[in-house]
Specification:
Largest sheet: 2 strands, antiparallel
Mean pLDDT: 80
Strand order of the largest sheet: 1-2
Shape: rod-shaped
Strand content: under 5%
InterPro entries: DUF2628 (IPR024399), RING_finger_1_prok (IPR039522), Zinc_ribbon_dom (IPR026870), Znf_FYVE_PHD (IPR011011), Znf_RING/FYVE/PHD (IPR013083)
Organism: Caproiciproducens galactitolivorans
Protein name: DUF2628 domain-containing protein
Oligomer: single chain
Structural class: mainly alpha
Order of helices and strands: EEHEEHEEHHHHHHHHH
Keywords: Membrane, Transmembrane, Transmembrane helix
Number of strands: 6
Number of helices: 11
Helix content: 40-55%
Low-confidence stretches: 61-67, 102-135
Length: about 350
């Protein structure tokens, strides 16, 4: 049933009130006050009946579908400025966690609700209520929809989380052009870096190997290599306390060492051999760290997407399985310091 309230009567031009006595033309449906229709005696549009010019009810504005507030993009990423849905736990573009309290972001209260001077444009983080230029792309110039081993780069960024501007371009260059980049963090810290990046299996193996090599080298140096070297210096009448050992004297001592039994010579050289092996392992990890990490990330993303049945569960898995393990890194650093200085204390 059509509600004629507010429409104008074609005869008197006055709008219909809710309680007015209204009659309609049986041909075209035009509404009239009963008195107006009786006065005219016919529909004023009778000569236009059957044509497109006949009266027609006004088009009703389509009823708007209810808005799903969870899908409204009202949550701004504090890192890159991208707008995300209210239910998002990670930024769709850079992978930044959105579970932090936005009220704690400097300038949020001043900016909220002011489209002109409020939210800064994309790429401008909050800083005391004033937008400042964002100096780098948190995705490193990689499109979130670009595929890396059939996985969107945006999903990989949600797993990497920390230092995505470095890793995403490296991953893309690896897959597109086969170009790798030497990872100095992986080179310097080897297994520790891999454990920090939650590559627990291979990281544990490399850490165990490097630790075992260091302990063997330290033990051999303290109990065999250093005493043997001191004995050879004494035979040559050279005082180690003087600190003025010439190159010729050092060559004489090494010549004496080479005349010792093969086992003692081997033990004397063993710390140097172990040091070389450690350098080789560090170089291998440095050259292959990015490749191994890419394989780890792609595998984790595929596993999470397969095992998680909804977006919320997927976001939680990204948060738990991605990022870095800072606590483990601190523990490894403490253990390293203990192992380094314990022989000197004992």
């Amino acid at each position: 049933m059509i509600d004629y309230t507010g429409l104008n009567c074609p005869v008197c031009g006055k709008p219909f009130a809710r309680n007015d006595d209204i009659v309609v033309c049986p041909e075209c449906g035009a509404p009239y006050h009963r008195e107006c229709y009786a006065k005219e005696g016919k529909c004023v549009f009778s000569d236009k009946h059957g044509t497109n010019a006949a009266w027609a009810p006004p088009k009703q504005e389509a009823q708007k579908e209810p808005v799903n507030r969870a899908e409204c993009k009202t949550k701004r990423c504090p890192r890159c400025g991208n707008m995300n849905s209210q239910s998002a736990m990670f930024c769709d573009r850079c992978g930044q966690s959105l579970t932090i309290n936005q009220q704690d972001i400097p300038g949020f209260q001043q900016n909220q609700g002011n489209p002109q001077n409020g939210f800064p444009p994309y790429g401008a983080p909050f800083q005391q209520g004033q937008p400042v230029p964002f100096l780098f792309d948190p995705m490193g110039g990689v499109n979130p929809n670009d595929q890396i081993d059939d996985v969107p780069a945006g999903d990989i960024s949600k797993l990497v989380q920390n230092n995505t501007p470095y890793y995403l371009p490296v991953f893309m260059n690896l897959k597109r052009f086969g170009k790798n980049r030497f990872n100095f963090s992986a080179f310097l810290f080897s297994g520790g870096w891999m454990l920090y990046r939650k590559q627990y299996k291979i990281g544990s193996i490399i850490t165990a190997v490097m630790t075992a090599l260091y302990l063997v080298s330290t033990y051999v140096s303290i109990h065999f290599a250093t005493p043997l070297l001191q004995t050879m210096f004494q035979k040559q009448g050279i005082s180690l306390d003087s600190g003025n050992i010439t190159y010729a004297q050092m060559m004489q001592v090494l010549a004496l060492v080479s005349q010792q039994p093969d086992l003692q010579v081997f033990l004397f050289c063993l710390p140097t051999i172990i040091g070389a092996i450690q350098i080789v392992i560090m170089l291998i990890v440095g050259f292959n760290g990015n490749k191994w990490y890419l394989k780890h990330c792609v595998g984790k993303v595929k596993q999470i997407r397969q095992d998680s049945s909804d977006a919320t569960r997927t976001a939680i898995q990204y948060q738990e399985q991605g990022g870095v393990n800072a606590a483990l890194a601190i523990c490894l650093l403490i253990c390293y310091m203990i192992v380094m200085y314990l022989p000197q204390i004992l």
